[in-house]
Design brief:
There is one protein chain. This protein has 8 helices and 16 strands. The two termini are 23 Å apart. It is of the alpha/beta class. Helices cover 27% and strands 29% of the residues.
Amino acid sequence: MKVVILAGGFGTRISEESIYKPKPMIEIGGKPILWHIMKLYSHYGYNEFVICAGYKQEVIKEFFADYFIRSSDVTYDYSSGINKITIHRNNAEPWKVTVVDTGLHTMTGGRIKRIQPYIGDHPFMLTYGDAVCDVNIEELVKFHESHGKLATLTAVIQRQQKGVLDIDELGSVKNFREKKANDGAAINAGFMVLEPQVFDYLQDDTTIFETTPMERLAAEGQLMSFRHEGFWQCMDTAREKTLLENAWNSGSAPWKLWD
């Protein structure tokens, strides 16, 4: 199953860094938060990624173009008049990464629609490129496969400006709406599993996935929630970046499940 990561937005609320790079490329502990997200999926054996890029998409492409060399010990030998390169050791991940320019001003649903040719008629995972979590991906996928609906999202209880969920006792999402002041309900934390039929709910570049498509999925009883009571944190602001940086530097970052 492929993992789709939304990484094309402007990141205006953390503009002090996103003026130079896409928000998913802002670093935590010397690595882009995008890398941290991918490491979580890779920990569970999911190593094929489709990155929905947009704003400053060349930064993402350059990172992966150089990743093998930057993760290796290398000898450059010019003594014979040619550039002979010897790789002694590499720590590169077993990843296959497709970076797709999904447009500068495309909305989230439009970005997902644009990568449909890279997914085909197969279920896929989807998340946002600006939040880390210690969700059990294996259990998330099992839950999705067990209920037979078109979409599963990971739900957490946070006082955040995210989409608010109305969930029944069986885990079915009955309503999806944007946050109101002082809400403390379950929110959509990303880390979704989707059936390919979800592409039919997406129209064009103006489609915002979190509004009409998800509202329609909920109304039709096709949207389920996987309750996560562990760690989840987005990186919308400089304060949140500092929080994540401090957690990483402490040596006990909750989302670091890999060795």
